[in-house]
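Note on ligand handling. Small-molecule inputs were canonicalized before submission; formal charges were left as drawn, and no protonation-state enumeration was performed. Where a ligand contained multiple stereocentres, the stereochemistry in the source SMILES was retained. For adenosine-5'-triphosphate, this procedure yielded the string shown in the input block below.
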Amino acid sequence: MAVIELNGLTKTYGGARGVTDLSFTVEEGEIFGFIGPNGAGKSTTIRTMLGLIYPTSGSARIFGKDCIEHGPEIKKEIGYLPSEVFYYDNMRVKDLLNYSASFYKKDCAGRIKALAERMELDLTKKIDDLSLGNKKKVGIVQGLLHSPKLIILDEPTSGLDPLMQQRFFELLEEENKRGATILFSSHILSEVQRLCNRVAIIKEGRLMALEKMSELKENTYKRFKLQPAGQVAPGAFAIPGVTEWKQEDGEVSFLYKGNINEITRRIAELDLRNMWVEEPDLEEIFMHYYVKGA
Ligand SMILES: Nc1ncnc2c1ncn2[C@@H]1O[C@H](COP(=O)(O)OP(=O)(O)OP(=O)(O)O)[C@@H](O)[C@H]1O
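Structure output:
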């Protein structure tokens, strides 16, 4: 079952581009990455899903229901963590969270306590006295306290230290095992890589690619590093698919995309001391899409 369905979603702000003709679906149980640089249109898409802004044309549906027509009903089943969190500073953390919980017709007390313990959040503190990272933790607990079916995260890790990021990711993986679908929007590619099964790449408001994480990695470049016994002739790797060829300090490196046998035949002609083949990280993949689509 599709949990999120975007159909030709377009949003303009006055004449300015927000997102253009965006279509994709997120299936139940997925951890879906939504990546693109600042200004690509991620927040615009999320705000439309939450019914906070109206699409100019096209539609966004969640749980099979239109996000504008059924906004309040849909929102009860969504946990949303915005990129920036703002609170009434005078409140204590527990009062704010109890207030948030009162919107759901569920007893969330046990969950609030468990989540706060997990994230090492002091419920008795005044929001005013919290650091940025601790405010972020309030947002996390607030987003998860009602055990939502869909979790929408907009740049969720900013302000969290590495240990807390790790905890948070573990928490998300548990929520996913419990059955929650997750949309994870980010420009930090390593975290998307770590967590997501599938990704949509967005650039200047348009969908650039929609792929399984595994395919995204397979269909792209591999980085080769060789340590030859002597100098390699400059033309030795002049075959299609080889780019960024470099020879320095006794090491040859290049990116390769193509039939793996072609390249191993070339490599086999060399006398090697050592060799490494590395998976490209998402950063390199991302650059590839951007350069290609530029
Ligand atoms: N309220 C608004 N009024 C006018 N233009 C807007 C508004 N909100 C967003 N935009 C524009 O829409 C485009 C997409 O912005 P959006 O915030 O959705 O991108 P993003 O991918 O979430 O980036 P970021 O990570 O920086 O938030 C940008 O060009 C932005 O300037």
